[in-house]
Design a protein that fits this description.
Radius of gyration: 18 Å
Oligomer: single chain
Structural class: mainly alpha
Distance between the termini: 27 Å
Helix content: 55-70%
């Protein structure tokens, strides 16, 4: 009977800078579209620019938050095996921590960035009630497709597909497990 290799013992894939950037495109696109909704809804006012800038800052701060509070518990911490590149960056911010606490850290800290997915649709809805705009509808449709379809699909099928922690990860774990 052939031996079935343990996922942790298989050689890990290493990602190039280009592959890491490609993995981040849906998040970057979501951030740009979200800022665009806030900017368009503000009608070019100082408020619109400020809201868009704050949203971009929140998206960047959210990524750093994950690097500081989740990535140190990941098996990819400090390696080129992290598809999004956070593992390498996180190693510059914090030392590695016990991997058996990854799922707990993930569940605890992911809610910090969840509002990024809901602020633009909520604000866009308010803008549409206030003043109907095809531009805002277009931005909202693109945002929803990217944030709720493309980004999760890319994460699950590309970024998370080869992860040795996917069985413990709250994002990848199947409901029946």
């Amino acid at each position: 009977m052939p031996e079935i290799p343990c996922p942790q013992l298989r050689p890990r894939r290493e990602y190039t800078l280009f592959q890491e950037l490609a993995d981040n495109i849906p998040y970057l696109l979501m951030t740009g579209l979200g800022a665009g909704i806030l900017l368009a809804g503000g009608g070019g006012s100082g408020w619109g620019f400020a809201a868009a800038a704050l949203y971009v800052f929140y998206a960047l701060a959210g990524a750093v938050w994950i690097m500081v509070f989740v990535c140190p518990y990941c098996q990819f911490h400090g390696t080129r095996s992290c598809p999004c590149g956070y593992g390498r960056l996180a190693a510059r911010l914090r030392a590695k921590n016990p991997e058996n606490r990854f799922a707990r850290q993930f569940r605890r800290h992911i809610p910090v960035i969840v509002p990024l997915w809901f602020i633009p649709p909520a604000a866009g809805g308010v803008f549409l009630v206030r003043d109907f705009s095809l531009k805002i509808i277009g931005l909202l449709v693109l945002f929803v497709i990217d944030a709720f379809v493309i980004l999760p699909l890319v994460s699950r099928k590309y970024g998370c597909a080869e992860c040795p922690q996917k069985r413990e990860c709250p994002w990848m774990k199947e409901p029946s497990e």
